[in-house]
Amino acid sequence: MSIRKTVSTLTVAILVGVVTVSWAQEQPSTTEQPAKTLQVTIQEDSGAGGLNVSNSLLPGNILSYLSCEGVLFGEPTTATPLFEVKISPDPNAPGPHWTVADDTFSYTWNYDEGIKVDFEGTIKDIGASSGLQLRYTLTNTSQATLKRVLLHTCIPTTDAPAFFPGRTTSASPGSFREGRYMGFYDRTYLWSKGQSFNLAKTEMGTDEIHLSFMREGSSPLKWEWWVNGPETFDYPFIAIESKDGKYTTALGFEAAEWASCNAGDERACYHLFPLFGDLEPGESKTVEGCFYMMPGTSEDALRQFKEDYPTAQ
């Protein structure tokens, strides 16, 4: 409850005139702070520094923001172990733990491969266009240069029925979508030359369940099960619209080189990999961005990101 100072006035009559005395009196304010549109909580059992994110305007929907499934580096591409980032919600835990202060969720994780990850996620609550502002600092703690460093984020849609595609049951026998989760491709967008393109309408969007796309001008990354489509994006932003088209979840960074969607299992997740480039021994680099869950279309989310991060390119 906030405190409001009100001024009371006492008039004292004196033989030679009138003296007015004022004093400050503390009274409880009747004005309540508005509830935040975006709610964020810690995933206690996550192996990827997970946060649960929901929007009060879209009740019954929770999106997972997995802040770090792993770090990719090297040529050819290798990676740290996946799902190793286990952060305790206990602020007094002796090992890696979440720190929560002033709507900011943060942690530090050290990989044995010589990579330190410092993560901060801060709730930016401005009503309908609220988001989770992201800040990653990666430090090379090894004795060797790390080439082409990217960080693996992930957003599963499983617990957000407004976005989750469900398992496809096709009326056409033998359809590749049968039993898959490819329905959200129809609502997923990347951007090139100022125009969005829909993943379902790309060359591999009808049959590839581990579909990925490179940044224009980048040499193809080859890692795990991902299959790069021939199309490319030139703006570091990916967005998925809800089934009714009234809401959008999106992820953008100041710099990103790889985007992908997994339709092979019930996670039905999407990813954008922020790019840190080469890191010399002892060198640190920071990349910022934002995760959105907001009313509006993918173009509305794009406009909001451009307003929030005008230097992104």
Number of strands: 20
Number of helices: 1
Gross geometry: globular
Order of helices and strands: EEEEEEEEEEEEEEEEEEEEH
Per CATH, the architecture is: Distorted Sandwich
By helix and strand content, what is the structural category?
mainly beta
Strand content: over 45%
Low-confidence stretches: 1-30
Number of domains: 1
CATH class: Mainly Beta
What is the gyration radius calculated from CA atoms? 24 Å
Q: Helical proportion? A: under 10%
Rounded mean pLDDT score? 88
State the CATH topology: Beta-galactosidase, Chain A, domain 5
Largest sheet: 9 strands, mixed
Termini distance?
43 Å
Describe this structure in words.
This protein has one domain: Beta-galactosidase, Chain A, domain 5 (Distorted Sandwich). The chain contains one helix and 20 strands. The strands form three sheets. Strands 3, 4, 5, 6, 11, 14, 15, 18 and 19 form a nine-stranded mixed beta sheet that branches. A nine-stranded antiparallel beta sheet has the order 7-8-9-10-20-17-16-12-13, covered by helices on one side. A two-stranded antiparallel sheet has the order 1-2. A hairpin with a 3-residue loop joins β8 and β9. The longest helix is centred in the C-terminal third of the chain and has 11 residues. The radius of gyration is 24 Å and the shape is globular. The two termini are about 45 Å apart.
